[in-house]
Amino acid sequence: MPHPQLFSGESVVSWSDLNIIISVPWYLGLMFRTRKEDSVLMEATSGGPTSFRLQSVWLSLLQILNNYLQFEVSHGPSDVESVMLSGLRVTDGEWHHLLIELKNVKEDSEMKHLVTMTLDYGMDQNKADIGGMLPGLTVRSVVVGGASEDKVSVRRGFRGCMQGVRMGGTPTNVATLNMNNALKVRVKDGCDVDDPCTSSPCPPNSRCHDAWEDYSCVCDKGYLGINCVDACHLNPCENMGACVRSPGSPQGYVCECGPSHYGPYCENKLDLPCPRGWWGNPVCGPCHCAVSKGFDPDCNKTNGQCQCKENYYKLLAQDTCLPCDCFPHGSHSRTCDMATGQCACKPGVIGRQCNRCDNPFAEVTTLGCEVIYNGCPKAFEAGIWWPQTKFGQPAAVPCPKGSVGNAVRHCSGEKGWLPPELFNCTTISFVDLRAMNEKLSRNETQVDGARALQLVRALRSATQHTGTLFGNDVRTAYQLLGHVLQHESWQQGFDLAATQDADFHEDVIHSGSALLAPATRAAWEQIQRSEGGTAQLLRRLEGYFSNVARNVRRTYLRPFVIVTANMILAVDIFDKFNFTGARVPRFDTIHEEFPRELESSVSFPADFFRPPEEKEGPLLRPAGRRTTPQTTRPGPGTEREAPISRRRRHPDDAGQFAVALVIIYRTLGQLLPERYDPDRRSLRLPHRPIINTPMVSTLVYSEGAPLPRPLERPVLVEFALLEVEERTKPVCVFWNHSLAVGGTGGWSARGCELLSRNRTHVACQCSHTASFAVLMDISRRENGEVLPLKIVTYAAVSLSLAALLVAFVLLSLVRMLRSNLHSIHKHLAVALFLSQLVFVIGINQTENPFLCTVVAILLHYIYMSTFAWTLVESLHVYRMLTEVRNIDTGPMRSYYVVGWGIPAIVTGDAVLHLFWSLIPCTLGPSWPPDLYMAQLAGSSQAPSAFTIPPAPSHCHPPGSLVFLSSPRPRYAPCLMGPIQEQLLPPGPVSLRPYTERLCLEGPWAGSLDSLLLPLRREMLSPPFHPTLAGPWHGVATGHVALTLPFLPAVFRTGGRPGPPGLREPRLLLAVASRHPDLELCGAHRSCYNHQHSHFCPICKGFLPKKAPLLWEKRDRVSGAEPDRPAMSAGP
User: Fold this and answer.
1) Domains of the chain from N-terminus onward
2) Residue 1093 forms beta bridges with which residues?
3) Strand-pair category, 1027-1028 with 932-937
4) Half-sphere exposure (CA, 13 Å, Cβ side) for 810?
5) Before 77, cis peptide (omega within 30)?
6) What is the mean pLDDT of residues 693-722?
């Protein structure tokens, strides 16, 4: 029944011989309107005696359930169940929508069949467990319009209109009840009834309103009551006021008050003599209310406070009154709430202006919300009224008020109205700019100096006076700004527009800030499908301001800072001869307010402009050979050592000054297209990458000699994080315009590395100038979820502790097991128990360095004791097999010394020499997959192992212990070093004391070359690249070195042994995975420049470019300290 059908009370529509099986879920729905208080809407019968009936009950003064819907299911005369909707009266002549749903609900492990009745899309709803008898039944007949046994006569017939009757497995299934197969008796199509107002039932001075089978009398203005009596006859005015009829007033009458009273009914006494627009007593003053902002010109007579006009409202955070704009069809009146602006909506109507329905397929009418079944309803969205539109078709209407063009919105059959497309709309203020942009694109005109000033001034005005930019506005503005910046990039000196108008740079930055607002993201995404978009705008800005930096000195521009909501531009000038470091911008000198996210800066070190110093003499020389002194050749840095008097005579020497220009973009990083360097060796992309910092563009121009590329001394960029929660794994990146990704470049990490990070900031250092940002991963934790790891760890350790405890108790209590061997097992169980107990207790003691150090010492001792008791067990079993006498009984003093005493001595020596020195804690959270090497020249006084300490407040897990021991023992085989290197996972155990002298001087030295040849080939073959790093790199990353003292056997140049004079070199080696950006060079080759490092001769090692070197020179022959370099543990 898709169309309305009119029932007269004796009408009926029936279907017979149906075969509809009720399944779960099951839906029954219809729409109706009626004024009859007792009638049957529908009756359906199954094959048996079961029936269910939908009815409304007769109105009674004693029953308040009348006029409400009831759903009844009967299984015989005595088995009747029902559910009623008692929250909404349905006999009001209005259209009502009813939906009955049968579904399964699981409660307390029991499946129930629940019937849910929903009236008017949720205005009233009730549920009941009465559906247990329905599933599986077959509906044989359905009667609509009353109860009828013979499908002709009708009992308790329905009088009114009905449509949309449907039942089946979906809410919209109408195929089961086809009107072509129905029997219609006295039913009419449509819903037209006689107008009751034709008989003029209303009294004089009133209008009759047809209410569908009913009527209501509406009195004219100025008349009140059931009989519409003249209001002035009732004398509503107070204080002797006179009632005068006034058809133009809201009430139809006004009260004319005396000279001492005022108000609508003359109820207020006039104490203040000030006229309208004035206030005060006894002296009157003007109100000063801004009528242009929606305020009433007449203020409060007592305090002078301004108030909004009638039908206006004012939000607390604003200083302007806004119109209510209540939609007449959906609201009761034009007034709204003075604080929120909410209009008084009719039932079913929502929205501040009462212009929407809660149902997406309903539209607002004078009677409320009415559902449209064949298309999308008339709706208000984005300042536009969209007309009714058929499903699958678009609607094109003029753009909102204040703009030109056409807006488009599509009507979907599944989702209804889709979001409107306003990209082609152009604001009125951008119409002339769009015409100019089209001329420039067609080369009909050109940009010159005067036109550049005019365009940027117009762009700033248009962007500032436009609340929301449409897509066409953004495209027009960015293309025009690009034309201007491209033209200015070729100008020199005083031909620059910035030298002719002091506000030129402010106009550019304010226009760019408006274009890069977060609200323009959707427009940029559409623009970048066919154009360069934000990447092209960034390139134009970089090109122009690079030209500005070159011309700052010659045009006598001074340093300045421009602050906007989304951008900051800072220009500074440095004296390279007296440069002590700088930070740009200097936020302590900025007085304007700016968002916290823009608080990012670039720091230049004190030696940034210092020329690279030339190295003198060979770094290594054979023993006995002297070094010939060399004369230092004057270089660019010689000028810095000139007397002060000379500098004063030449204050403007060429090459004395440098210009730094920094631009900070708050949102540009998120607006750029998501394109990344395809070379994963330079950029390891997170799982869900996102730019989480402002974008910082750095431009530096140095007079005289240009800065080297890459920079000798990197710039430090400090970023403020945009989001501090659920952002991990920072990667320092920059926008590389030369990448062949999408034609406009992409994000790359070449030349940048992470320096430090805290909760709110990230610091990066980069060996070039570009536009930098920080790429992060959207995840909760830095290294994944910790909870599963905690559960597994604590569960496994608890089981292990319980098993060890049971083993110890059994070995202690069972007499049959008492022997030296089982005593050794008891001590071994105690050592294992203590090691795991200390591990569980101390695993989280990383905040306090003292506790962390104590835990590390205990674990060091207990683990050594565990291995010692394992050794004791092996020796004891060996003695039991080789000695004739019974050694399984008797004293065990020697065993106690080996098992507990020797580990205590070794640990005590390590505590005295290492734990309380520069290495506060030897535990750490992770072992990064890099290979770090360094070379040290040894002496008898040198420590036995050179370990790069982690950060002082940083602790490593006990699973990655580093054993630090006393100098030069000689009692372990040399093969422990290479075995450890090749077999142990990351987090290695340093076996330095077991491998030093024996490997270099013992019988193992000759065979090491063949043993380590596969390792050397693997390390020297791509893509495996070991790296050498100084202690500063270890501090930054938390790596601990693995000591292997066989450098001549591992690294040979062309099969030759190492250089003379290095008889006992010690190699610090932490073995891990492969490093993509570093190379391994031979010990006698000259220095090789690389992106991140220099690999120099063997005396220098493999060092980061930016790391400082501390040289410690010692002569191997004479004992003096002239030439031998060695790396220090820290600056």
Assistant:
1) 5-193 (2.60.120.200), 586-609+656-781 (2.60.220.50), 786-916 (1.20.1070.10)
2) 1104
3) parallel
4) 8
5) no
6) 89
